[in-house]
Amino acid sequence: MPVPPIVPLHHQPALPLDHLILRDSPGPEAIEMDVAIVGGGPAGLACAIELSRLLKGAQESGQAVGDLNIAVLEKAESLGEHSLSGAVVNPRAFRELFPDTPVTDFPFRQAVPGEAVYLLTERRAQRIPTPPTMHNKGYYTASLCEIVRWLGERAEETGVNLFAGFPVDALLVEGDAVRGVRTTPSGLARDGSPGSGYTEPTDVTARVTVLAEGTRGLLSQAYREWQKIGSPNPQLFALGVKEVWETKRPLDRVVHTLG
Ligand SMILES: Cc1cc2nc3c(=O)[nH]c(=O)nc-3n(C[C@H](O)[C@H](O)[C@H](O)COP(=O)(O)OP(=O)(O)OC[C@H]3O[C@@H](n4cnc5c(N)ncnc54)[C@H](O)[C@@H]3O)c2cc1C
């Protein structure tokens, strides 16, 4: 029997908007930035690198643009720790982001040498022609956490401020505008009261706040709900399992299976 799609709208408890969208003024110790990017995954880091690149280009062409203070706030203790996927990567975005870098310097393992698709039944694996959408010619195998660490290094080289170990808890808003973010306090006791190693939350103010939290980002969901931004195409989710295999020698193909 076909399983009906899981639509979070019907299965997720109501978002605690009063916790996620705060009208508080930023604290006196707030860190002032021009751009605050929430999430140090590929999207957040690419955003920071591209912004720096555009700014440098404008400065070099003599435009009267000042400097930009860009911050990336990542909840993992170090970049890449929350990046668990990645296997085959299309290098196009890397070429656009780093036009002067040879592909051999990108954080890839190897070019995809070949591929095979198998239909699995209870007893056998039947090889089938590779469907057009599964062709990986010209792509590379890679580890997402290695990619993220590499992007983090490139971002830091361009002067981006990386704050790892800073989970963002809430958006700080004034009227309809987002003025920055507040991080999660640390060292709370089980009942939520300040424990022995308690550290106050940090406020980061910014002219522009970018949400790059990845799939099911709470702040992005809260922002859309607060601003009543609907979608005729709600996100759908499935459960996946990842296995990491150690092979005796490098594989000579990417293998897809279905069935
Ligand atoms: C099982 C699996 C396999 C995949 N395989 C491939 C593949 O082979 N090739 C491919 O190209 N893509 C693959 N993808 C897709 C790829 O992983 C995503 O497209 C990519 O990671 C999206 O990048 P992102 O930066 O938008 O989000 P993410 O990679 O999810 O990064 C978001 C970051 O934001 C941080 N964050 C979230 N909330 C907060 C917060 N409140 N405060 C601070 N930080 C926060 C997270 O810790 C995380 O580091 C796969 C995905 C999955 C799940």
Description:
The protein has 259 residues and is an alpha/beta fold. It has a single domain (8-258), classed as FAD/NAD(P)-binding domain (3-Layer(bba) Sandwich). Helix content is 22%, strand content 26%. It has six helices and 17 strands. The strands form five sheets. Strands 1-11-12-15-2 form a five-stranded mixed sheet. The chain has a four-stranded parallel sheet with strand order 10-4-3-16, covered by helices on one side. α3 (42-60) runs parallel beside α5 (144-157). It is globular, with a radius of gyration of 22 Å. The two termini are 15 Å apart. 20% of the residues are buried. The mean pLDDT is 92. Residues 38-44, 73-76, 82-83, 85-89, 144, 167-168, 212-215, 217, 219, 240, 242 line the site of flavin-adenine dinucleotide.
